[in-house]
Each structure stands twice: as C-alpha cells, then as structure tokens.
C-alpha cells in the first residue's frame, strides 16, 4: 500500500511535512498537509506554501500503488524463492 507521505517523499525526498490522516481530495490535502519551511526561535516548525498540487501528489500516489500492485507476485514468492545470497 502507498500513502500520501510516500508520494510526497517520491516527489522530493528531502521534503519536510506534516500529514494529518490520509487526504483523499484536494480540500483534505490542502487542510491536512503542511510543508515545513523552517523553525522559529523556539524551535517550533514554520509552515509554508504547498510544494505540490493535489494533482501531482495523487498522480504520484497512483503510480506508486500501480508499481506496488504489479510486484505482488514477488512478495508472494519471496518465501518460496529466497535470494541467491541466502
């Protein structure tokens, strides 16, 4: 399974963000995903504008899910066929 956090990390591996729940629409994404742009003098996170649109993130999530689904056979057979290193 993939999630919004995995999709954001796939788009920008060093992105810092906070996700509340698992957004399933643009409105939920905008309300529940906050990107960290720094910290104030107390060390509290400072949030900035969205780095990605909902369309970008949801498309990447769908791409990752397809890749995950297409590799199901590998996960199913992993115990039957250990790697050659084993």
**Residues in β-strands, percent:** 15-25%
**What general outline do the C-alpha atoms trace?**
elongated
What is the helix content? 40-55%
How many angstroms does the end-to-end distance come to?
A: 27 Å
Strand order of the largest sheet: 1-2-3
Low-confidence region ranges? none
Number of helices: 4
The largest sheet is: 3 strands, antiparallel
Rg over alpha carbons: 17 Å
Q: Given the helix and strand composition, which structural class is it?
A: alpha+beta
Question: What does this 3D model show about the protein?
Answer:
By secondary structure, the chain is α+β, with helices and mostly antiparallel strands. 44% of the residues lie in helices and 16% in strands. It contains four helices and three strands; from the N terminus they run H-E-H-E-E-H-H. A three-stranded antiparallel β-sheet has the order 1-2-3. The longest helix is centred in the C-terminal third of the chain and has 17 residues, at 54-70. It is elongated and about 55 Å long.
What is the element layout, followed by pairings?
Blueprint: H1 4-11, E1 17-19, H2 26-32, E2 33-39, E3 45-48, H3 54-70, H4 72-77
Antiparallel strand pairs: 1-2, 2-3
Helix pairs in contact: 1-3
Annotation keywords:
86 residues, single chain, alpha+beta, elongated, three-stranded antiparallel sheet, 4 helices, 3 strands
Short description:
This protein has 86 residues and is α+β, with helices and mostly antiparallel strands. Helix content is 44%, strand content 16%.
